Amino acid sequence: MSSLTPIDHQFDKEHIWHPYTSMTQALPAYGVVSASGCELTLEDGSKLVDGTSSWWACVHGYSHPEILEAMQKQLSTLSHVMFGGITHHSAIEVSKKLLAMTSDNLTKVFLADSGSIAVEVAMKMALQYWQGRNAPRKQGILTVKQGYHGDTFAAMSVCDPEGGMHTMFGEAVTKQLFAPAPKTPFGEALQEGDLEAMEALLETHHETTAAVIIEPIMQGAGAMHFYSADYLKGLRALCDRFKVLLILDEIATGFGRTGKLFAYQHADIQADILCLGKALTGGYISLAATLCSDEVALGISDSPSGVFMHGPTFMGNPLACAAACASLDLIAKNRWQDQVAAIQTQMKQQLSSAREIKGVKAVRCLGAVGVIEMEKSVNTGKLQQAFVERGVWVRPFSKFIYIMPPYIISENQLSRLTQAMLEVAAIAGAQTNEAADFISHG
């Protein structure tokens, strides 16, 4: 369909679900007709600097020629084939690249089709592993509050149980164990007592706990919080002490977002099971991966079924694997290191004044992530409109006005984003009748 074809917004509003949106009070959906570099082009011809990397995935920008070429080449030969009993070059190549760039203990790759499924796979791996190690009672998962791991049912069970997005599902969601969220900020030595509750839970429940799952260094959609690498080091030691697997969810943090290739590298630890997604393909098509150690794979193979019980229809999709190979080749060139460092420096400088804005609780920057945390939840729709009027795409949620721009963003484009964040935060924080709609009352 041509980009000149008018977008049928009425049909969209009446019939198409968008993420976390009501069908009776839908948020506005802006019509995008093309994208290139760091810009989205709307149907009226206006352009928006993208501050979200399309939900943290499009790290190389849009229409990157190397990724497009790889996908077009794959599309012309083999766009999809079942992975049961069949293999292909692109799946082998992307798996080789992932094993080469992650920690040495990770030797096995399961290729799924979304981040939530990568988490589901990781949790199932942990449970099956302990069945193969004659410890079938180890079926629980332990995690921390304020986390987010996806929208499917097992993933929901380890999302924040109090203020998270999935609290309304009640008894339908498996009850897991939750320790308090890490308190020690990133860059600081571990505060006394920060791991005590986690240690106490493991002491009491290790015989029925299969794994601990956590987002390393950055809690994303649950809190936009950066915590101490020392917490991760201590958690790894506790998992070893109590014989519990450690699952690291790097779906949001992987491939350079926090300033290291993987966030766990800030703590110099290894996962037993590692979840990857989002930027894996550069944001061009959905693909995720769950990596595990030889020991985990052997335990699963020794379980009563003898095989790992999961196999999505689009597992190892050739087109997605080809895109991932091209994206990982771009990552391997290491330009992202200088790009992410420059983004962090510029954001820290330009967002620092937000601390003086009324209604702002905190300002945080790490790698290519910049966050203004408000004291109150914001009105996403109203703030979204204010950002579009300023020529940028920023998608606030809860109390957070944040950006995770593509790594290729220019200084000028990033300045437009940070300036818009300051202006909109000031509007949201103002206690006047005119600005009242910018604060969420829900």
From TrEMBL:
Subunit structure: Homodimer.
Site residues (Participates in the substrate recognition with KAPA and in a stacking interaction with the adenine ring of SAM), renumbered to this chain: Y20
Organism: Shewanella marisflavi
GO MF: adenosylmethionine-8-amino-7-oxononanoate transaminase activity
Gene3D superfamilies xrefs: Aspartate Aminotransferase, domain 1, Type I PLP-dependent aspartate aminotransferase-like (Major domain)
Binding-site positions, substrate: W55, Y148, K278, G311, R395
Localisation per UniProt entry: Cytoplasm
Cofactors that this protein relies on: pyridoxal 5'-phosphate
Reactions that this protein is recorded to catalyse: (8S)-8-amino-7-oxononanoate + S-adenosyl-L-methionine = S-adenosyl-4-methylsulfanyl-2-oxobutanoate + (7R,8S)-7,8-diammoniononanoate
InterPro entries according to UniProt: Aminotrans_3, Aminotrans_3_PPA_site, BioA, PyrdxlP-dep_Trfase, PyrdxlP-dep_Trfase_major, PyrdxlP-dep_Trfase_small
Pfam family, one: Aminotran_3
Protein name: Adenosylmethionine-8-amino-7-oxononanoate aminotransferase
Major subcellular site: cytoplasm
Family: Belongs to the class-III pyridoxal-phosphate-dependent aminotransferase family. BioA subfamily.
Keyword S-adenosyl-L-methionine part of the UniProt annotation: yes
Binding residues annotated for pyridoxal 5'-phosphate, in chain numbering: G115, S116, D249, P312, T313
Transmembrane segments: none
Keyword DNA-binding: no
Record PTM N6-(pyridoxal phosphate)lysine, positions in chain: K278
Cited function: Catalyzes the transfer of the alpha-amino group from S-adenosyl-L-methionine (SAM) to 7-keto-8-aminopelargonic acid (KAPA) to form 7,8-diaminopelargonic acid (DAPA). It is the only aminotransferase known to utilize SAM as an amino donor.
Keywords annotated in UniProt: Aminotransferase, Biotin biosynthesis, Cytoplasm, Pyridoxal phosphate, S-adenosyl-L-methionine, Transferase
EC number: 2.6.1.62
Pathway listed: Cofactor biosynthesis; biotin biosynthesis; 7,8-diaminononanoate from 8-amino-7-oxononanoate (SAM route): step 1/1
